[in-house]
Amino acid sequence: MNTNPDAVSEVTPEYIFTLSQLDALNPAVFSANVVTSGGFMQHFATYKDVPSLGDRYTWSQGGYPYDFFSTIYPNAVKEIGEVIRAVSNKPENVNMLSAARVWRVLMMQQITDFYGDVPYSEAAKGYSETIYTPKYDKQSDIYADMLKELDEAASSFDASKATFGTSDLLYNGDVTKWKKFTYSLMLRVSFRLTKVDATLAEKWVKKAIAGGVIIDDADIARIEYSDAPKTINYNPFTYALVSADYGVNNGIDNKEGGKFAKTFIDHLRNTNDPRLNAISIVWKNGVADTTASIQKGMPNGLIGGSAPAGFVTYSEPNPKTLLKYGAPYLVLTNSEVNLLLAEASIRGWSSGNANDAYKAAIKAALGQWVLYDATAGAISTAKKNAYLSNNSLSGTTFEEKMNQIHTQFWISVFPNEIEIYANWRRTGFPKLIPVNVPGNLTNGTIPRRLIYPPSEESLNVKNYADAVSRITGGNVMTGRVWWDKQ
Q1: Residues with Cβ within 8 Å of residue 277, at least 6 apart in sequence
Q2: pTM
Q3: Under a CB-based contact definition with an 8 Å cutoff, are residues 137 and 118 in contact?
Q4: 61: pLDDT confidence band, cut at 50, 70 and 90?
């Protein structure tokens, strides 16, 4: 009969959904989170030339500017599309369909925030509809549809119907938690509109808050990983850091020449931030030392391609937390949500108290490191209280309060560099000083977007050209996406 006994003729949506959850967090982690976003946001630094795009806005080889674009479409986006098609016409699978729609929004927001106009409505339809050259939807249209998708998904969840159950790595099919995640993601999406359409942003922010968002530790959206038996079981951020840069535990043989950046470490030290000990170490005689007084960030913008003097004395990620294979991946936290609620309050979009939300965010962020390791991530009550008492929302103007809120965002949402980079472009906080080295690609300014891959220029010619024509300056990193209005 010429039938392949190992082939599958029908999609099992539960299996594909699990795979999409894993693949959504895996693509180009090192390039997207560390080399580009992490460097732009001055959390990470390098002295080497090849991974210097985020550090000093220079680039000579490799796919760092477009790795995220070229890895997530053929994997996670395609997979979630298969799930949606498999469950769409079965009313009893409404929870599966709703979760899949929400998960697709999470991925597509990351893609469009990096690049601007991208394939969206026709994305990943090569197999199902033979669309091999998808159009690039305008980002304004993408955002409108993402909000619609979240709104419809949130209202469609039904606790009496079947779920993905244990195939759902995020919440094990808990419909109540999925609804909070959906409205929290709506809050994130809505706030992206503040510069381009504040009225529309306010409308959706209020809807998200009214729906119920993640404000407690128990509802944090996270995926748990383990240190065995295969690499797919590892936290992808950790695995990327270890395999790409920090695989030799001596502080010297860092493959990509990476360390924590001076801007980041200086801020944590100057504010007596107790997270410093959980995040950062310095190698001393082969031992990882977390002593706050010796932590030292490496400057961004080093040139010459050689390690600076005393390279071993610069801080790098803590092996017991950030480099722990079994650490969880925090997708969306109550710390992030509470910081956005604080902003909603100072804008007059919420009746909640801004300072209460701000303190709740810091408290949650200080506590989340025990999720990485109960010992290495533990911060004493005394240190938490001291930091909270010294970091109230004390600004008197809107601008001052925004600076405080989003400087905390820059710290508290770490290591989700993709979201931190997007939020910084929206708010402008914290006030980072860009580097300006010879040969940089942005005239000494922090890039505002990543560039489309050259494969699109040759394989999707017309749609690529249409999208590029809508970017000021063309397919360049100084162009701004639609919501990043100057």
Answers
A1: 290, 291, 292, 379
A2: 0.97
A3: yes
A4: confident
